[in-house]
Amino acid sequence: MLKHLSLIVLLFYTGLRAQTANERFVSYTTTPAAVTLYWKDASGQPLRSLQNLKQHVEKNKRKLVFGMNAGMYQTDYSPLGLYIEQGKTRHKLNTRLAPNGGNFYMMPNGVFYTTTDNKAVVCTTQDFKPGAKIKYATQSGPMLLIDGAIHPTFQKGSSNLNIRNGVGILPDGRVVFAVSKNLVNFYDFAQFFADLGCKNALYLDGFVSRAYVPDQNWTQLDGDFGVMIGVTE
Hints:
3 helices
């Protein structure tokens, strides 16, 4: 009887935790092969918003099923760090150390990339190795999880709250993207990815973060940013 009661309590707790996470975050899981990174339109101008991205893919007879901003950028909407699109390096890796330079420079920062053989990786900038197989890549920071451990500077219960979005790699190799529905600190955001089983996860950006996930009735189509992530069908 006690054993069954313990199991019921465990299932209730797990369900409650999942419900709480769902109330705090919107997440989207996909295969590495489905991920595309976008920056500029056909005329060479930054797309800047998810609405523009949606229209951009529709012009190519595609339907946007997921969209999100994909890393920090400069005032001209160019990437702050590494950006690779269709195997071409559009912006080089940023290895600058700037302790007071904002979230991007909270070391270690990192890179999210996919490969031509349909693998996805999140790694620290220090561990990133360029190669011919890299199809898409975006650099941002800080890392949320590093080999299963939460970034050492994050503090549980921190009052440093903001909207945040990020990306992690699940144990089965799929990619999970997430954005907070409300203000959240770094520690709790990292814990969300840890609870999903991710060993490595990367913070993408803060208050500017937006996501378009129509299947979950989350349809933010505004925004004013640089590189974006899209999944189409």
